[in-house]
Amino acid sequence: MTELEKIGKEAKSASRILAIAGTDSKNRALLKIAEEIDKRRKEWLSANEEDLKAAKENGMRESLVDRLTLTDARIDGIIKGIREIVALPDPIGSADKTDRRPNGLILQKRRVPLGVIAIIYEARPNVTVDAAALTLKTGNAVILRGGKEAINSNKAVVAIMRSALLEAGLPEAGISLVTDTSRESATELMHLTDYVDVLIPRGGRGLIRSVTKEASVPVIRTGEGVCHVYVKKDGDLDMGAKILFNAKCQRPSVCNAAECLLVDEEICEAFLKKAVPLLFEKNTKLRCDEKSFAVMEKLLKSGEIKGLSAESFDPATDEDWDTEYGDYILAVKTVKSFEEAVDFINDHGTGHSEAVITENYTYAQRFLNEVDAAAVYVNASTRFTDGGEFGLGAEIGISTQKLHARGPMGLMELTSCKYAVYGNGQIRE
């Protein structure tokens, strides 16, 4: 038996205990985890410093270093997220519906855990805690396989959480970490069908597509985010510029950050005059189609935008329309019509989050109806696609598929169902 099979076997055993653990028991364990993370945060921060040092030595780009970084404020937010999960209703055991059949059978559809959930993710230590807290609340066991960049951070916090589980009287194997960060361990986890009930990849396009293609364990696809902000000619351009700046620049490394601006041709120049100075506060590079490139050249020659240089923008290539940059880079495309914008989004988006800036009610409703994505916004930033912002507590990922779960995956999305059937002697004729 391999080390990963041993982890899987222990997780499966733990999942059977967690599945019947009461809400009070699970909540006590979650509160204990929050308490221990708070008390032992220096251990976690110290381990994170090791990861950050290695990341910088290896030339990790700034936006990814940001994802890896823990601070006291971020740990406070993580602890707050755990306590919010404690306050949420426990879906396990709740009945979706109860029916009485003509033959007297009573059918009750109940919420039950999925079982053992494995998660393959990249350099985000907060995911380690979010995933553990959500799976614990829903009576699932979790096997975590983070990236090598965060291995010290993950080891430290998983040790803290496992000790808290034991103190709360629940099996420590309810939260497990794969410490082997090689490609081989990820591949083995993708095929651990005897123990793993569902696998959730969380990271960039390459990781997600690799897992989806390779795995024999059922996969919930999450996180791939080529998100658009479409500024329609009847939109409030000042508001649109602020929304675009937030969607692109607040945290460019996350999956709900905007990667492409679509703008009606008639207002391209007027809008870029408002948006570019904001974007340049973060030295955002633009990848422009032919018409927006011409507008940028005009603005460069006029000297209207302070700090604008020829290095600030480049002609876009076909690949730019399908690229999740995760950085301070924004593709810019002009469109002739609303229909062209919607078609472009549906052709090049990843089904994550899309936004329109418009004051026209009819077109706002059409955008909501016609754009195929998990979250569709009118006059708001795509950055709100998040479990906490949606009132779900933390999230285990943002599903961009349509089966079982779509959008931020909170507690309900980590459950399945079973039918409890009550009879009094019925037999089928």
Key terms for this structure?
Aldehyde Dehydrogenase, Chain A, domain 2, alpha/beta, Aldehyde Dehydrogenase, Chain A, domain 1, 429 residues, four-stranded parallel beta sheet, 2 domains
In short:
By secondary structure, the chain is α/β, with parallel strands linked by helices. The chain is built from 14 helices and 16 strands.
| Euclidean distance between termini CA atoms | 48 Å
Quickly give the structural class. alpha/beta
Which fold does the CATH topology of the largest domain refer to? Aldehyde Dehydrogenase, Chain A, domain 1
Shape type = globular
Architecture overview:
The protein is an alpha/beta fold and 429 residues long. The chain folds into two domains: 221 residues, 3-Layer(aba) Sandwich (Aldehyde Dehydrogenase, Chain A, domain 1), CATH 3.40.605; 158 residues, Aldehyde Dehydrogenase, Chain A, domain 2, CATH 3.40.309.10. The protein is built from 14 helices and 16 strands. A seven-stranded parallel β-sheet has the order 10-9-11-8-7-12-13, with helices on both faces. It has a four-stranded parallel β-sheet with strand order 5-4-3-6, with helices on both faces. A three-stranded antiparallel β-sheet has the order 1-2-16, with no helix packed on it. Helix 6 packs parallel to helix 7. The longest helix is centred in the N-terminal third of the chain and has 17 residues. The model has no long low-confidence stretch (mean pLDDT 94).
